[in-house]
Specification:
heterodimer; A: 669 residues; alpha/beta; Rossmann fold; FAD/NAD(P)-binding domain; Alpha-Beta Plaits; five-stranded parallel sheet; 17 helices; 34 strands; 27% helix; globular; B: 159 residues; four-stranded parallel sheet; 41% helix
Chain lengths: 669, 159
């Protein structure tokens, strides 16, 4: 019936597949029942992906002259490349191979052995019918631009940018805020070593700011991403600073003279003030201030211009407008970080209502020597030193009402707070925890140290924080109501100050970011990596990498490691010079094209162009992304899509429905 | 036991390479169970779904067809899932005209993270199709679509 010689290989995957599917039976069945479809050999093997398994395929291609190969194993997203390479090694075009996912789609999700075996057969039959219509293809080679875009100037983004820049490649580092530094710049101490955060961060910021290979774009946002790996075209909106950076010396006179004070909700977490023209903190990189138009007296009322008057270099420019910059890059690293959980969402904890309930970020600013209280730990009145402090863990994390996940840093952060309170005020400290999670290097030792310092640890989830006092000695205090699960009793603990270790949450605009860059985020909102263990910084979109908290909550060492890892991946890509892309593209048979133009409006990538003179449509393969929408839409069947052709899909449907097993059952078309 | 109770429908599912196929992978990795009645086909995008594919599946003996794609606004190819949505709505009407219950065709949005959701939707669909019973459209076709021809009890296409 067919001249083709197909080999079917069924993987046991140890017991992963063989535990639920009778793989020997399936392999034998394929060899006999599908013989009239060209199957000449059906084999099963313990681990098809092992080098011995691959050799099996290679050998059969050489000795039996196989023209097509079907491998029934795991998801093509894992091992398609492996078997394509095996085919290639044996001299067969790599695209003459089809993977059938009988692990993810059969053995792991079904329990009934007979049904799972039957489904595996149907899926292999689908794979055989599909592979019969495969065509030899050549991967497309595209050059990789040596430039890289890093989005987000926190520690992960800075690390990534520096690694790439040090390797001699050019980096654009885009940051939304006026300065790079991210959350780490807000902290005072870092656990568990208690390094001064600014002392270790600012040298890296300066390095990033002055590196000849880094172009810093702060107060800027990515608005559009076009293209694909190797050549992305990115549009960046450079927000108007209203300060001319080539004239500004960063002397800070404008900030000093600005009469308008605004509560700094971003850098000072609402605890301190900044001016309408400002740099978020003294060590900001770059040093140039930005003007907050919404709060500037001149923009709101039409008079003032004090900054302009006093600027010694005439750098203030009220007429400056937003600019759109277009950059060409080969790879993109996304390191956009996290937002802090809004503790107001838990009303019983009283944040926003009870003055002396603070969030973790507020407390970070409070302990920072450059912060609004000059590093003094005081109550909201700004002078009173607390005598008793309660620190609540897991605020908004590990809580089904808010976030299911563990925010990973809160235990260590709370221990750090306990230590700082102890050291600076001598106050009594209570930590309210559900479980202590101090898993990384030197973390548990720090926990022991804080315990030895005399911090009280109460295991239980805080029910309420209230100022409703009635017992003697409670007056003027905040009461923490908690069940101490280790002694099995309800407790009321009077404290002066409460610190809520709030959860890390995905950025409020994570959905827009994901859409902008063509990524997927989990239901929690963190960006999804290509593989949680083996490919943690790559994404499903080739050429776009993620690093730091955008991928999930993590501490500074982990963020730095990911930044460096993403950089290494990018450098590797740049070193290759070019990359091979899947040759999945649509093309028009101009003989068949009737010029109806139905497809013309379907392509969001403008890959379809219409020749008015000849009244036919053509597809630009460089722009085609291979979605296949035009293929499905063409009423004349003039458009064909490689890799997913009509013949392949229709064949697979027939195969899946086992219409090929007994030709007599075939329904007349 | 009546035949109705033992009826195991065959369902063809179309998945998008970027979301629902990965959701199926994820369901597998997480060992989430669903009935074995559905057989999935990978497309690069739900926009690739040619209505012919659905009709082909029904004519070939499928009792139900599942179309899956990225959530509206989350398409990997910007907006192609909306184009599939149009075809889906049209198909629903066409199927009705052909005497096929439109409920045999189902659309599910499933992101790459929604393995559990996809598994649940598949489980639900299998029960819905089971309640509708076998389609037996191939026999209808043989009778030019006007009357069900007298045919010997169809051999069930065992999977």
């Amino acid at each position: 019936m067919t001249e083709e010689k197909i080999g079917v290989y069924v993987c046991h995957c140890g017991t992963n597949i063989a535990g639920t599917v009778d793989v020997e039976n399936v392999a034998k069945w394929a060899e006999t029942a599908l013989a009239h479809r060209g199957v000449v050999i059906g084999r099963d093997y313990k681990f098809m992906c092992s080098s011995l398994g691959q050799e099996l395929v290679e050998q059969d291609i050489k000795e039996l002259g196989l023209t097509r190969v079907v491998v029934a194993a795991c998801s093509p997203h894992l091992h398609e490349k492996t078997f394509r390479t095996a085919c290639k090694n044996a001299g067969l075009n790599p695209y003459m191979c089809e993977l059938v996912s009988i692990r993810e789609q059969v053995s792991w999700v079904h329990t009934d052995r007979a049904a799972a075996t039957a489904k595996s057969k149907a899926m292999i039959s689908g794979g055989v019918e599909r592979v019969l219509h495969h065509e030899p293809l050549e991967p497309l080679r595209v050059p990789i631009s040596p430039h890289t875009l890093v989005v987000g100037g926190g520690i992960a983004g800075i690390q990534a940018a520096l690694e790439i820049a040090d390797a001699g490649c050019h980096v654009y580092l885009v940051e939304r805020e006026p300065s790079i530094g991210g959350h780490m710049a807000q902290f005072d101490k870092t656990f568990p070593t208690l390094d001064c955060s600014a002392c270790i961060l600012t040298p890296r910021m300066v390095e990033a700011g002055t590196h000849p290979n880094i172009t810093l774009l702060t107060w800027a946002e990515v608005t559009r991403v076009d293209g694909y790996v190797g050549s992305f075209t990115v549009t960046v909106r450079q927000k108007a600073r209203k300060v001319l950076t080539d004239l500004c010396t960063g002397c800070g006179i404008c900030v000093e003279k600005c009469p308008k004070k605004v509560i700094d909700e971003v850098f000072e977490a609402g605890l301190g003030y900044r001016k309408a023209v400002y740099t978020p903190f003294p060590q900001a990189v770059p040093k140039y201030p930005v003007m907050d138009v919404e709060n500037c007296t001149y923009f709101q009322k039409g008079t003032c211009r004090a900054c302009e008057k006093f600027c010694p270099t005439g750098a203030i420019d009220f007429t400056q407008e937003d600019e759109y910059i277009t950059i060409e890059v080969g790879n993109i690293i996304l390191a956009t970080g996290y937002d802090l959980f809004d503790a107001r969402r838990i009303p019983q904890y009283g944040y926003g209502r009870l003055a002396n309930v603070f969030t973790s970020l507020e407390f970070e600013r409070m302990t920072n020597a450059a912060g609004p209280t000059d590093g003094n730990i005081v109550l909201r009145d700004g002078v009173t030193v607390p005598e008793v402090v309660g620190i609540v863990h897991c605020v908004g994390s590990r809580d089904l009402r808010y976030n299911n996940y563990c925010s990973s840093i809160c235990c260590m952060q709370s221990l750090k707070f306990a230590h700082l309170v102890h050291e600076r005020t001598g106050a009594i400290v209570y930590n309210f925890y559900i479980d202590m999670r101090t898993t990384a290097k030197a973390y548990d030792e720090f926990y022991q140290r804080v315990m030895e310092e005399g911090t009280h640890f109460i295991r239980g989830k805080v029910a309420e924080i209230t100022d409703a006092t009635y017992k003697p000695g409670e007056k003027g205090k905040l009461i923490i109501q908690v069940e101490d699960t280790l002694i099995g009793k309800q407790r009321r603990i009077p404290v002066d100050m409460v610190i809520l270790s709030s959860a890390l949450e995905p950025r409020a605009d994570h959905k827009q970011t994901a859409h902008l860059f063509g990524l997927a985020c989990s239901s929690d909102g963190w960006m999804i990596e290509r593989h949680p263990k083996l490919d943690p910084v790559a994404t499903v979109t080739e050429g776009i990498f993620i690093a730091g908290c955008v991928q999930g909550p993590k501490d500074i060492p982990a963020s730095v490691a990911q930044g460096a890892a993403a950089a290494a991946r990018v450098i590797g890509k740049i070193q290759q010079g070019e990359i091979s892309l899947e040759p999945i593209k649509a093309s028009v048979d101009q003989e068949k094209c009737s010029g109806c133009r139905i497809c013309n409006n379907l392509c969001p990538f403008n890959a379809i162009l219409f020749h008015e003179d000849r009244m036919v449509t053509e597809i630009n393969p460089a722009l085609c992304q291979g979605c296949g929408t035009c293929v499905a839409a063409c009423p004349a069947g003039a458009i064909s899509g490689t890799g997913f052709s009509n013949e392949q899909i229709l064949g697979q449907i027939e195969g899946l429905l086992m219409l090929n097993v007994n030709p007599l059952q075939r329904v007349p078309a | 036991m009546s035949e109705q109770e033992t009826f195991e429908p065959v369902i063809i599912g179309f998945t998008c390479n970027w979301c629902s196929y990965r959701a199926a992978d994820m369901a597998g990795t997480a060992r989430i169970k669903y009935p074995p009645n559905v057989r999935l086909i990978r497309l690069m995008c739900s926009g690739r779904l040619d209505p012919t594919f659905v009709l082909k599946a029904f004519s070939g003996g499928a009792d139900g067809v599942l179309i899956t794609g990225c959530h509206p606004g989350e398409c990997h190819y910007i907006e192609q899932n909306y184009k599939m949505l149009r075809r889906y709505l049209l198909l629903k009407r066409v199927l009705g005209g052909m005497g096929i219950e439109p409920d045999r065709l189902k659309l599910v949005w499933a992101s790459a993270a929604e393995g559990v959701r996809l598994a649940n939707e598949i489980t639900k669909l299998v029960e819905e199709i089971r309640a509708l019973g076998p389609l037996n459209w191939p026999q209808w076709q043989m009778g030019n679509g006007h009357h069900a021809m007298e045919v010997s009890q169809p051999e069930e296409v065992t999977a």
